[in-house]
Amino acid sequence: MSRLSGLFSSLWSLRSSQEQIPEDVNSLLLHVTFDLSNSKFVENDTTVRIIGARGSGKTSFLYKLYFKYVVGTPDEAFDVMKTENHNVETIEYSGQSYEMWEYAEMANSIPHLLGTNIIVFFLDSVKQSNVNVAEKARENMLWLLTQYAEALSESIIITVANKQDQPDAVSAQDIGDQWMKDAKLRAALQGHHWRIFPCSSTTGSGLDAILQYIHTTRESQILLQFSPPSHRSLPPSSPLPQRERASFSSRLPQGATARPAGQSPLKERFEDVLEDDETLRKKMRHQSLQADFGSTNGKKSLSQARMPITPWEEMPNPYHLSDNDFKAWYDQQRVYLFFDYQSLLRISYIYLRELEYSHERRSEVTRRLLSNLRVILRSIELCEQDAKQASSQESDQRATTEFAHECITYSETQTLFWLHMVSYCLMKHPVLEGEDCSFEQFFVRCPELWDGELWRNYYSYKQFHAERGTLEFLAPDKKPLPNAFKSSSLALKGSGLKIDYQIVS
Ligand SMILES: Nc1nc2c(ncn2[C@@H]2O[C@H](COP(=O)(O)OP(=O)(O)OP(=O)(O)O)[C@@H](O)[C@H]2O)c(=O)[nH]1
Ligand SMILES: [Mg+2]
């Protein structure tokens, strides 16, 4: 320890001679805030600022990195003492040197944070089980991002859920979910590259993933000369309120998505739509890069692309997206974190509403809805498989819970049934001019859709879940579906039950 504390104090004196941190932080803050209006903050491309609660493990993290990447002794045991002001080390990673600063208090770090490229925000995951502590951490992050929104607008934000080696640590997934449930914080983070990583500064687990993310994200940001990522312009979206969630269908047995034997007229329909798994994986990687770095612009080849390290944050929770963003994502066949019953109703509603204003034929829209759904659901499944495989290799069982969301599987019969019911509800509860036309409002108005077992009125279980119905629409075997079309739809008039069947065949 004495060796390290000596090291720290010598570093401190070296740095403090270069960067005078005044005692009166407030006056400095005023000064910096004033300067903001006139200056564009640009700093060393590779500076990383580590902040967070006292005792959360910032110093341990810095020196674990130091021993691993500088000294080359990753298992070196060392003690740390409370940081007086700050510590700094230069860490070499993938041919790039990163100057890493860690600060004792957030207040003394602020003058250095402004305009910084990478902010690493540390949390003690054990203490996150205390709601007040968790809330305080979120408040601090929010305060920083809102107070210095302009100066930090380009900053990559990394949240580190440290001390994951402790049995009572709150998982990174749960902490991330809490952060995303906080509408203000979510809005403040929107537009930043933001990720949360599980980590243990004592065992060193998670260190590589964090460094790799810093490296690839920063590298690409430089390549793209700070061109904003494509999602930056998206407006902050409000989450749907928690409400009773009906279940669409339990996952079909393994292989249910495989083509059934026999000559269904729909059999060839998706031949050109659903690519093989490898192509889908490539596409997902490409999309994740685009989401992360704006556009690859040909500057980064696919062979250089890496799967996201913690893929779930790359994939948006559909509940966090506005209707517009949700649809844009769907149209691009991009992978969501999960796609549940409510998401299906929502996309059905959005597509049907759009139909009212477009010249597109209903059958074309339905076809697009189905083909996109099939690709998206398969992509989610592949991500799930990859994550499970990765977690079993790392023997980190926690990672598998990242995908523990309700997710439907592809079934043409079930999808078209729900599309039909949404269409029916749209007719029964039309959106009047001037009314809020969000899915959220529509759903509130349609109690019919709250019952995930609604299909039982029309179908036997066997028919609704028949394997044959996965890739072709099976008509109800109990009673006809309600008419879901205005009488002006002459071609469809009176066809009630068979309408969707006609559309897809
Ligand atoms: N179990 C466990 N203990 C950790 C971990 N990281 C840090 N610690 C312990 O937590 C205590 C505080 O660690 P520090 O690295 O000093 O934390 P800090 O954020 O730098 O604290 P300040 O300097 O007071 O701001 C020490 O006893 C560390 O050994 C971790 O990942 N797991
Ligand atoms: Mg410290």
Could you describe the 3D structure shown?
With 505 residues, this protein is α/β, with parallel strands linked by helices. The chain has helices at 2-18, 25-36, 58-71, 106-113, 131-147, 172-181, 183-189, 207-223, 277-293, 311-314, 323-331, 341-355, 362-393, 412-428, 439-445, 461-464, 499-504; strands at 47-52, 86-93, 96-103, 118-124, 156-162, 194-198. It has 2 domains: 2-226, 3-Layer(aba) Sandwich (Rossmann fold); 277-504, no CATH class. It contains 17 helices and 6 strands. It is elongated and about 75 Å long. The relative contact order is 0.08. Guanosine-5'-triphosphate is lined by residues 54-60, 80, 82-83, 104, 162-163, 165-166, 200-202. GTP binds at residues 52-59, 162-165.
Shape category:
elongated
Element-by-element helix/strand order? HHEHEEHEHEHHEHHHHHHHHHH
- Total E-strand runs: 6
CA-to-CA gap between the ends? 75 Å
Return the structural class.
alpha/beta
Strand content: 5-15%
Alpha plus pi helix count: 17
The whole-angstrom Rg is 26 Å
Would you identify the regions where 5 or more consecutive residues have pLDDT less than 50?
A: 1-44, 225-273, 289-313, 396-404, 487-505
